[in-house]
Amino acid sequence: MAFKRISDLGDLTGKRAVVRVDLNVPMQNGKVSDDTRLQAVKPTVDAVTAAGGEVVLLAHFGRPKGHVVPEMSLRPVVPALANILGREVGFISNEDFDKYVANGEWHFPLKPVMVLENTRYYPGEETNDAALAANFAKLGDVYVNDAFSAAHRAHASTEALAKLLPAVAGETMGAELEALNNALGVPEHPVVAVVGGAKVSSKLAVLENLVEKVDHLIIGGGMANTFLFAQGFSVGASLCEKDLKDTALRILEKAKTSGCNVHLPTDVVVATEFKAHATNEVKSLDKVLEGEMILDAGPDTVAALSGVLQVCKTLVWNGPMGAFEMEPFDAATVGLAKAASALSDAGSLLTVAGGGDTVAALAHAGVKEKFTHISTAGGAFLEWMEGKALPGVVALEQ
Q: pTM, whole model, 2 decimals?
């Protein structure tokens, strides 16, 4: 994976970097309620300014679908961003941008760091319009992509723009790409992947790709029920995609051919109600009754899987092992997460995780900070696990 970094651009004095970032943050009462993505912008802004350059940040917010939707303006994000960056941040409205494109003159005070209004206000953004990208390119001299979370989309600000200016990866993007390359690109074996979540159908491509790349595949959550059902076990009233029985068997056969060991629960936690603290019981797979729901993997499974982690060098994790949002059905996710974090802490296991539910689960387990790398990207992380080429990354490699 060959791409350049900001340091490769050299002295940026007198130059402006057009930087694609992710400012798509949750808002409450007009204020940012979670600034995680804003924090991720700081290293790149600091790197550009340290090299003498100025910055124009490009980002989308929500899905305005090519229309100006006031509720999806990036303007309210600017104060929180300025606070994190510790510097003044200016704002470029649509009107200001259009005037600048028309005559090349700024019609407002310029700050060393500027934020352009929501790129998705322009119809050409999501269609990867070359003319819009050319207008974006007029804002600066170099292009920096620091938004891995948007790298799976071939949009004007992520793909077409990268072809018009010297293009490099930002600090956060660079760290992400290096971590992902170490996890699945050129990993240290044995490699183990944990794939959980509700439905096999949503992660079919992930499973198909992983069985050819990893040494061990741990399947958890509602997905595991479909595989157990395919193997002839009763799953009672559990979430299960019974119509995917043949698909599950095909994946298991493909894994066998590829030399990948698939690990499924050997004991499970069942309940008759889907709610926190519901009356529950640990059972072997052959004891699940008709009206019971499998809501988590059991303690024997966690112990066995923790043993698998101990013999591996690399871990990729996406998805919980059970209904982790409800105690006590978080036990398997928490237990396995703690086992992984202890090995990561000891330096014997490289641990990379991503996806919204996964990040929430690891935070719930109190181990988020102990993993080698946590990706906050959702769709991009999933498509990377599927083995797909990400347009925003490919553009940087070119």
A: 0.89
